[in-house]
Amino acid sequence: MPVYQHTARFDVPVDRLWSWYDSSGAFRRIMPEWEGIEPVEAGKLVDGEQTRFKIRLGPLRPMWVARHHGVQSGEVFNDVMEKGPFGAWDHEHRFVPVTTTTCELVDTVNWRLPFHPLTFWTAPITVKGRLNQMFAYRTARVESDLNRIMKTAHLPRQRILISGSTGLIGMQLCAYLAAAGHHITRLVRPTTVLPSDAQGDDTVVWNDRTGEIISGDLNGFDTVIHLAGAGIGDRRWNAKRKDEIVSSRTVPTANLVAKLVSLDRPPKAFLCGSAIGFYGNRGDERLDEASAPGTNFLAETCVAWEAAAQPALDAGIRTVFMRTGIVTTPMGGALQKLLLPSKFGAGGPAGGGKQFYSWISLADQVYAIDHLMMTETCEGVYNLTAPEPVTQKVYAKTLGRVLRRPAFAPAPGFALRLLLGEMAQALVLDGQRVLPRRLLESGYEFEHADLETCLRQCLGRQRV
């Protein structure tokens, strides 16, 4: 069978690398963002345990089932494919100590395509390029996770309660914090459906509209991270949808804060979601955390959202307001919607393209939240945006360059307003040039400071 091998070196002891891979969050962390993989079950590193996930093959979503075998704790484990798209697949992960503080991970894959005698010649196109990108992504992700974890390894691990844990940010945040050794509990509603690989996680169940705790206890958490809220770009706005966007943020936030401040053992820290929509449509004005709020619908929503969390700060709980920018990942949000037209060369300027997009990579969104949680001096408002916002035209051109597609076909503003209504103005045609001044001053170092680097990694277009 053909053999693929990849070696990566890490500046951590070998037991630290093994511990990361042996965590419940590791599998979701190493799945490439562009592959559209849906974890179903993440088996422990024990002989006979299964890992199952759905993959994307065009319009199909076949299941891949792998079984662990040959596990020697701290040294090696293997995954053999029992069901999936390959004719055969056996993947050895070997953990090799180099010094007391460095190690290598040697991945060796024995694989075969279906109908291999007829299809082997397609491997350079169908297999090897994707493997190169996949392992480049895995190496970068594991390395950056370990680097961030090591920075706070001297601090106690925390008990963390997270709302919005099934959302785009929440899923990756839970996985990373679990890999970092923290104990995660999900704050969910009775109707919340946890993803298959999180079915066994601890939960507190509540009615977010009344504040009633249905099961579990809010006492004793070190940090509460509140991310829940209805999506703002999921469907066209009308009066009912706009009311839901506001109430899904302000009412649960007020109810949660009221519960937290009345506890016998309240949390030490409360991190509350917000958004750069706080600043409204501001052209090319440079905005930081001291800038005044805007006056449009999203600005008024964010002002009310943050006001609902203010009693936590007044009660002496270290409170952080996280004004998040455009989270850039093909797994959801703006980039996911832009990918299809951009692949057909129709990702040109929208409404002239002069409006600023203040973006942030999904990796930096997760790491920034961890940084704000673990840095006790961080309090108040923080902009979670990359330090180099770009105009929409530059965003479109950069995406086209990464995809190797033209990016000149314009989308006139009036056409977008006809198609999307008021939402088009707020989410596409308006812009803010937001800078993460306080985040940088707190010592945070960005993983992706420029847009092209971010897009290449999350879209599997790295130069390897």
What does this protein structure show overall?
The chain has helices at 14-21, 26-30, 116-119, 123-151, 168-179, 239-261, 297-314, 333-343, 362-374, 392-403, 413-420, 422-429, 437-441, 451-458, and strands at 3-10, 38-41, 50-54, 63-72, 76-83, 88-97, 103-112, 159-163, 183-188, 202-206, 213-215, 223-226, 269-275, 286-287, 318-324, 326-328, 356-357, 359-361, 380-384, 390-391, 433-434. With 464 residues, the chain is α/β, with parallel strands linked by helices. It has two domains: 3-151, START domain (Alpha-D-Glucose-1,6-Bisphosphate, Chain A, domain 4, 2-Layer Sandwich), CATH 3.30.530.20; 159-458, 3-Layer(aba) Sandwich (Rossmann fold). The strands form five sheets. An eight-stranded mixed beta sheet has the order 11-10-9-8-12-13-15-19, sandwiched between helices. Strands 1-7-6-5-4-3-2 form a seven-stranded antiparallel beta sheet. Strands 14-21 form a two-stranded parallel ribbon. β8, α5 and β9 (183-188) form a beta-alpha-beta unit. The protein is globular. The two termini are 24 Å apart.
